[in-house]
Specification:
This protein is α+β, with helices and mostly antiparallel strands and 237 residues long. The protein is built from six helices and seven strands. The chain has a four-stranded antiparallel β-sheet, covered by helices on one side. It has a three-stranded antiparallel β-sheet with strand order 1-2-3. A hairpin with a 7-residue loop joins strand 2 and strand 3. The protein is elongated. 32% of the residues are buried.
Length: 237
């Protein structure tokens, strides 16, 4: 079965960024049978919007696995989960909690995929948004645990699914391309006044058209700001 695993995240400008600085949406997806080569696409969008507004344009294949969204535990949830069994103060690697503190209306579960050498391990909380493969809970939880052991920068399991980690790494790379705006080291053009109600979208369009701001690399093309020679490798690691 042809399958694509995706990870997506959005990074936003901080309080000290230039007015109208856009957010950066980052998407990574596997393109190989081993499910370990994650290539990426990166788009600018209006600042402080968490939803990716142009997701369909950021990938071209239409192979979907059960899509999950992950968060980390609140303090109350953390206490309940850790009351269910411990080793050196932490759960065993691969521990799953799918009842008691989970939603009565949705398919969600807590998974601690990693073993902690020091300190407290914090399980990730997964919500299944769509499952078109009709996996049962054990199959999906086992697969989620397995891909936590495919993060290329670690020899052990990581605390959340690899595509989520890689999406975070990818958008951090994207912030490098907008460093001047994020650090207020760039002067906003006079024709984009602060009181312009369309400032955020105008800034997105303006930056996309300015090679020195979004595409500083010679050879960058399309929507991505890096050289086309990097399109087929995980350069952002």
């Amino acid at each position: 079965m042809q399958t694509m695993i995706m990870g997506a995240d959005v990074t936003h400008p901080g309080a000290h960024s230039g007015e109208g600085t856009p957010s950066i949406a980052a998407v990574v997806a596997t393109v190989d049978e081993r499910l370990d080569n994650y290539l990426g696409s990166m788009h600018l969008q209006k600042g402080k919007i968490e939803v990716i507004t142009d997701l369909a344009a950021m990938f071209v294949r239409d192979y979907w696995l059960g899509l999950t969204q992950h968060t980390f535990l609140s303090e109350q949830e953390y206490g309940f989960v850790h009351s269910k069994g411990r080793i050196n103060g932490n759960l065993r690697a691969g521990a799953v909690i799918d009842q008691g503190v989970t939603s009565p209306n949705y398919f969600d579960f807590y998974l601690q995929a990693h073993a902690t050498v020091k300190g407290k391990a914090r399980p990730a909380h997964y919500f299944v948004l769509l499952d078109e493969m009709n996996w049962n809970s054990n199959e999906l939880q086992q697969f989620t645990n397995d891909i936590c052991y495919t993060f290329a920068r670690a020899t052990k399991g990581v605390s959340s699914a690899t595509p989520a980690y890689l999406a975070d790494r990818f958008y951090e790379r994207g912030r490098c391309y907008l460093r001047e705006l994020l650090e207020m080291a760039w002067d906003r053009p006079a024709h984009l006044p602060v009181d312009d109600p369309g400032l955020k979208q105008n800034m997105v369009d303006y930056i996309k058209d300015r090679a020195e701001l979004w595409k500083p690399s010679v050879g960058a093309s399309g929507v991505n700001p890096w050289h086309t020679n990097l399109d087929d490798i995980m350069f952002y690691l």
